[in-house]
Design brief:
The chain has about 200 residues and is mainly α. It has two domains: about 100 residues, Rna Polymerase Sigma Factor, Chain: A; about 90 residues, Arc Repressor Mutant, subunit A (Orthogonal Bundle). It is about 70% helix and about 0% strand. The protein is elongated, with a radius of gyration of 19 Å. About 15% of the residues have low confidence.
Amino acid sequence: MQSNQTDEQLIRGYLNGNDNCFEQLLKRHKNKIFTYIVLTVKQRDVAEDIFQDIFLKVINTMNKGSYKEEGKFLPWVMRIAHNMVMDYFRLGKRMQFVDNPEDEQEENVDIFRLLVNDDKNAEEKIVSDETAKEIRTMINRLHDEQKEVVLMRHYGKMSFKEIAEMTNVNINTALGRMRYAIINLREMMDENKEKRIAA
């Protein structure tokens, strides 16, 4: 069954003329890639355009026989995604991390949202929503490198190995950036708590 094949087996199948193999690759990795893009550019229509451009580039590269990243398909595609997103912002667009519009689909929003059980009352749900909004605001205040790791890890569901490969740093640097991001977020949370108490 093709869904149980490795990425490399699916790539070989596609290059041998089986378009369904590419569809399987796309299904397997679409959520990680698209989530990263939409959370970074903050506009679904722009994210969809970038996503399509990415896979056109992927297809063209593979069809030309230029794909050499054996065993590293997702990190390779994520690097392409990262570069295209950076190109989008370099063309004069403003970087807008994390502050999700309310109409975003839930699957692409708040990994930090408190787990809201169905039996929670309306007041508790409002508190949960306010907490998630506050955390998104704090993430937005992080240094870009820390913010990027938080987005990739918690929203893009990427491993630290994938993050390291995509951002061209070693895994310890990626881990360090996350560690400092968490420290900074905790400090901001403490500051906010003190302000609320003093108010």
